[in-house]
Amino acid sequence: MLITKNFVMLNVPKTGTTFSRTVIKKVYNNKYGAILNKIGYKLKILKREIIELKLPNIKMPTKSLDQHGVYSQIPTKYRNRPIVSVVRNPYSRFLSSYKFRSWANPTQLTVSKEIIKNKFPSFPNLNLDTYVDLSLEAEKTRLEWIKEGVENIHDLGPQTIQFVQFFFKNPEEAILKINEEYITSGAYRKDMADIRFLQVENLKDDLYNLLSECGFTKKELAFVKEHKKMNVTKSKTKATNKEWTEKALQYVTYRERFLFLILKDFGIEYQKPNLD
């Protein structure tokens, strides 16, 4: 996570966080010029206006420290600052995760080697439908960060679970409350932190506006809208919809149904891609 004097940025994987972190750090670190910053920090004339914290990964406890800290890990002294994060269309994020292929490394999975060997003999050469099957296997143990043996009785998808982990005050309690009434009634709101969401689809503009509100000038932000994209997963086809299958669309639509409802409640609505 990034701690700035104006806000805290939570970095959700595969939502443009590399780009966001790069831009934000560049803006804050260049405020007085790189050389003056270094001299000022060394002489303790200037106080650092941005800190990057690497924290234990509560989402996959076997992993080491990383930059993807969640709300419940924000140090108490920074909790009074606005919290900012980026959201992405769950459909495009699912497809991007498939193509990015971090799952092809067995150490990144919560699926046992025995299951992979018996059910996915062609692993890691999986088509999109077989990747859905692999995701369903992974979901069976997706809640074991709470307690071993906790079942995913509401068929929560990985993005929904991760959203709760990132943005709820007590993720362990909130994840067990999730059902349609909890979301549609708005009851979830009292358990969720106050987050300002930027959208990856408008990320350059949203970042520009955020940093402008923090007092940075047009000159200081001139590079933001021209900055090249980062960590973009390349597609073999120009039309993303051609990469979808009916099975994959149904998987995301159903498993992430509560996430879609929450995002809609925040005024962020995504349409299901068409196959044709």
Automatic annotation (TrEMBL):
GO terms for cellular component: membrane. Transmembrane segments: none annotated. GO terms for molecular function: sulfotransferase activity. Gene3D superfamilies: P-loop containing nucleotide triphosphate hydrolases. InterPro entries: P-loop_NTPase, Sulfotransferase. This is Sulfotransferase domain-containing protein. The lineage of its organism: Bacteria, Pseudomonadati, Bacteroidota, Flavobacteriia, Flavobacteriales.
